[in-house]
Amino acid sequence: MRRFALSLLVFALASTLCAADKQHRTKLQIEMQKFAAALELMQKGILYNCKECIDDGADRILKNVKVLEKVDVKHFLPEKQKYAYKFAQKTARLIDMYARDAKESFAAGNMDDVINDHTQIIRQCNSCHMRIRGW
Asked: How far apart are CA 102 and CA 105, in angstroms?
């Protein structure tokens, strides 16, 4: 009877941990989809001269990057890269910096810098994805 109870307890604990990991993954996927939509909005603004799109896209990135800084990426990293959470935090800070610069450059009417900042944001995203996904 004790073995059965212990087995049941271990199973319940394992199920809970698995569900928590799935919840973390789902939350991160939603946040990444928001990032992609914001980048797409900025790109639309650049391509079609939609000034509201550029400003709104940068604002969305700035809003989402705060969430990214709070996400514990250790859940998503391969076992040999658990130390890379500092890398993810640095990437989030750089994305924040480029999004702020894009807003400032846009306000100053410097579209070349806006385009460069958009490109740099995408490079930061790709850099993190390459490390986490092992591309």
From this structure: 5
Residue 13's CB is within 10 A of a number of other CB atoms, namely 10
DSSP string, the chain: -HHHHHHHHHHHHHHHHHHHHHHHHHHHHHHHHHHHHHHHHHHHHHHHT-HHHHHHHHHHHHHHHHHHHHS-GGGTS-GGGGGGHHHHHHHHHHHHHHHHHHHHHHHTT-HHHHHHHHHHHHHHHHHHHHHHHT-
Alpha carbons within 13 angstroms on the beta-carbon side of residue 108 total 11
N-term to C-term CA, the chain: 48
Q: What is the pLDDT of residue 86?
A: 77
In whole angstroms, give the CA distance from residue 129 to residue 120. Answer: 14
pTM over the 0.70 mark: yes
